[in-house]
Structure formats: C-alpha cells, structure tokens
Design brief:
With 345 residues, the chain is an alpha/beta fold. 39% of the residues lie in helices and 19% in strands. The strands form 2 sheets. It has an 8-stranded mixed β-sheet with strand order 3-4-2-1-5-6-7-8, sandwiched between helices. Helix 7 crosses helix 12 and helix 10 packs across helix 13. 44% of the residues are buried.
C-alpha cells in the first residue's frame, strides 16, 4: 500500500516534533513518501529518505503536481499537521484522505473534513469541538503520537533535594512565539525562586531561527544564574531526561505550541512528571492520569506547581511511566493506522 504524508512541516525530524512523527510513520509504512509545503525551504528532495519539500511560492505548479502524484502513486492520502492546510484542501480530491490534526491552528472547514474518511486528533478537547461542529462521531478518533518505548527507560528512583531541575524542550523557532510558548513566564518564575534549576533546550534550525538571541538577552536581563540554555542537537535525549526531574509545558495560550509535545511524551516515559499550564490543550490528560501538576499560567503558579510536584514526586513519577505505556506505544499506533489505511483504501 502506497501512502503519501502531505504536510506543512519543516522536514527536520531531528528538531521538529511533527516532522519526527511523519518520518517515523513513513519509515514504517514503506514504500511511503513525504511531501511538504513550507516557507522555511525553497526545495528539498531525497530519494533515499523518500521526501520532497516545496516553498509555497510554487503554488501554481503544486496545484498541477499534487493531483498528478495523487492519481499515479497514492492509495491513501495522509494529511498531517494543521486542521485544513490550504494547498491540500484545494488539491487532494482523488484518493481517500486520512487527516491527523497535530496543531489546532487554522480554520475548521467542514467541507474538507467531510472529504476525509478518518480524522485523527491528539486531544479530547479537539475531538469534542469537531463533534460539536457537526463532524460525524464515527469519523473522529483520538490517537496519541507513539514513541519507541524501548528507547525511553525510567531513571533510577531518587529523592529530590531543594533544587529540582526542570526541563523545557519545546523551544520556539521565532521571537514571536516566545510569549505564547511560555518562555517569558518560565524565566520570570526562575527569577522568583532561584533555588529551582531550569534547563532550556533549543535547537539550531537548518533554515534559521530568531528565538535564541532574545532568550539569551532575557536571561541576562533577569540576571539568572539558575537557568542553563543549550543550543544543540542532542542525539541521545534519554540522558537529558535522566538528568532532570520535571518536564514543563508553560504555554500562555492554547495555541502556544504543539498540543501533545514530544518532550511531554518522552519525559513521561522516562518517569518525569509534567508541569503543564492550564491553558495547554493537553492539561486534561495530566490531570486524568495524575502524572504531573497543572498550574495557572503565571510565574507564581509555576513555582507553586513545582512545590506540589516535589511533595508528591514518587507517585507522580510512577504514574508518568504508567501513562506513557498505556497511551503512547509506537507499536499500538502503527497497528491502529494500518487498520485505518486498509479500511479507507
């Protein structure tokens, strides 16, 4: 079965969560291809890794090329990313469509959702929203991203001291994303309580980024000695998680970042409880599985959440591992998607 993963990601799986999820699926469901449309590149192509990427300025050409690819080389279209990527909304009309919504950005277009044979979402909130908007209940399903749980092992149990270490690994790409992603909130919390250690992990985007220098300037401005900022690709992230005590998702807006961040999933699998802002779409999951602490998106709210997390650490850590194995198994995701592909093809 030939599947094309149509997306608007940056095609950098070592950096971006959506790219990582798509490349993982394409590698499993061979001989699939990945086709991206994103302003971060002009043109990218790899026959070995089976992907092609185009700049949106090729719009007119893509309107002719995409239907040709769809007609000649596709059994199932899997659109992955936003609610309704415009270029795919306009062009994919010949083969069955499976839509995975990994970001709630964009407008809900019911005519596009009606054309989709299956709509997979990563939060219960979006599931409820789509049902309320009139999408058929049997068409919509919550399917969380999967990870290879054999790579993410819980660290050895340990007693926390008065200086817990908090990992922020959902780094924004642009200066404009800093506020919504919660970077300013996090740095203000670090100023309020200098006993808590924070590790910010940024990544060098191949096509450039504007978030690093403003973050460095803010750390200097607040005179923070309890914040470590790393800007690097780290092949073995498990070691980073094992050096930390919590993962933080400090969004100040619901669309502050990916609904179900990879760092949250990987951190849970390593036994790290999650500190998550109440406005983040995945906060309900943390409450439901009692695998972290939900906080109001303020500096004092984050500091208070850390104090609660420290006091309940062993139980939260055990629940984190349990939630990861129940909900984020890569094997389970592959099996379910194979069933869906066969049903719609």
């Amino acid at each position: 079965m030939r599947i094309v993963y149509w997306n608007t990601s940056c095609l950098e799986p070592e950096i971006e969560a959506i790219s990582k999820e798509i490349f993982c699926l394409a590698q499993h469901f061979t001989p699939s291809w990945i086709v991206g449309v994103n302003p971060q590149y002009r043109f990218r192509f790899s026959r070995k890794h089976r992907y092609a990427g185009f700049h949106p300025s090729f719009d007119l050409g893509l309107r002719a090329l995409i239907p040709l690819i769809e007609s000649c080389a596709v059994n199932v279209n899997h659109v992955y990313g936003e609610l309704c990527p415009w270029i795919f909304y306009k062009t994919l009309k010949r083969r069955p469509i499976v839509l995975t919504v990994a970001s709630e950005k964009g407008e809900i277009r019911l005519d596009f959702l009606e054309r989709c044979r299956k709509v997979l979402v990563q939060t219960v909130r979006l599931y409820t929203t789509l049902i309320e908007q009139g999408v058929e209940r049997k068409k919509v399903e919550v399917l969380y991203p999967g990870v290879d749980l054999s790579r993410w092992k819980p660290r050895a149990p340990r007693q926390l001291d008065r200086s817990p270490k908090v990992l922020f690994a959902t780094a924004p790409r642009t200066r404009e994303e800093l506020e919504g992603r919660g970077v300013h909130l996090l740095l203000q919390a670090a100023k309020v309580c200098p006993e808590i250690q924070y590790h910010l992990l940024y990544r060098p985007w191949r096509s450039g980024y504007t978030s690093l220098h403003p973050t460095q300037e803010a750390i200097t401005h607040y005179d923070l000695h309890n914040v470590t900022l790393t800007n690097a690709l780290i092949p073995e992230m498990a070691a980073v998680y094992h050096q930390c005590d919590f993962v933080v998702i400090p969004y100040t807006r619901a669309d502050g970042g990916k609904e179900c961040p990879n760092s949250l999933i990987e951190g849970l699998a390593c036994g790290l409880p999650v500190l998550i802002s109440r406005v983040a779409p995945f906060a309900y999951f943390v409450e439901q599985y009692e695998c972290g602490v939900v906080f109001d998106p303020t500096p004092s709210g984050l500091v208070a959440a850390i104090e609660v997390g420290v006091s309940r650490y062993q139980r939260l850590s055990q629940n984190a591992c349990r939630a990861a194995h129940q909900c984020f198994s890569e094997t389970t995701v592959f099996q379910r998607l194979e069933e869906i592909y066969r049903q719609v093809a």
